[in-house]
Design a protein that fits this description.
The chain is 35% helix and 22% strand. It has 167 residues and is an alpha+beta fold. A hairpin with a 6-residue loop joins strand 3 and strand 4. It is globular, with a radius of gyration of 16 Å.
């Protein structure tokens, strides 16, 4: 399977439609992402990653999506600049690092495992534009999911920009 990451939006807004952000939540990006992923985990929202001959990585919304989203803005910026980037999926059980190596209009994605799982192949090549669109779509789906469940976090930047497709 080729590398792919997607987010299935929640089908209902009921679990958090009356919520507010507690005063102990910082408004820094990482804290907001962790809180947001905890809220989305209480819905039927689903996070998917596949690739490197693994049909579906065993990821969840509460923790693994948080790890991914914390690093997404930098990853997306580097891909757009045709710079090398890294995404560390450090969650216990996943423990994989993806290294993105810019090659003109292509990106080599190297998967390094820190578990018994062995990626085969360990390198995949993807069109830069397709990778950028996929990562942008994930950001947009994340923000729309927050808005759909009525989370006030959707009003914070960068999420409020992402809702309109500006990821």
């Amino acid at each position: 399977m080729r590398f792919r990451c997607t987010l299935e939006r929640p089908s209902s807004s009921s679990p958090t439609s009356e919520m507010s952000i507690s005063s102990d939540v910082d408004d820094d990006y990482e804290s907001l992402v962790m809180t947001a992923c905890g809220l989305l985990a209480d819905t039927d929202c689903r996070f998917h990653i596949q690739g490197f001959d693994s049909v579906e990585w065993p990821v969840d919304v509460a923790y693994d999506l948080s790890v991914f989203m914390e690093q997404l803005p930098d990853l997306l910026a580097r891909i757009r600049l045709r710079s090398n980037a890294e995404l560390d999926m450090y969650s216990q059980g996943i423990e994989r690092t993806l290294k993105f190596i810019a090659k003109a209009d292509l990106v080599e994605i190297h998967c390094l495992s820190r578990t018994d799982w062995v990626p085969n192949p360990s390198v995949e090549i993807m069109n830069k534009k397709y990778l950028e669109e996929m990562l942008s779509r994930l950001a947009v789906d994340f923000a729309i999911s927050l808005a759909a469940i009525g989370s006030p976090i959707a009003r914070f930047q960068p999420f409020s920009s992402w809702v309109s497709g500006s990821a």
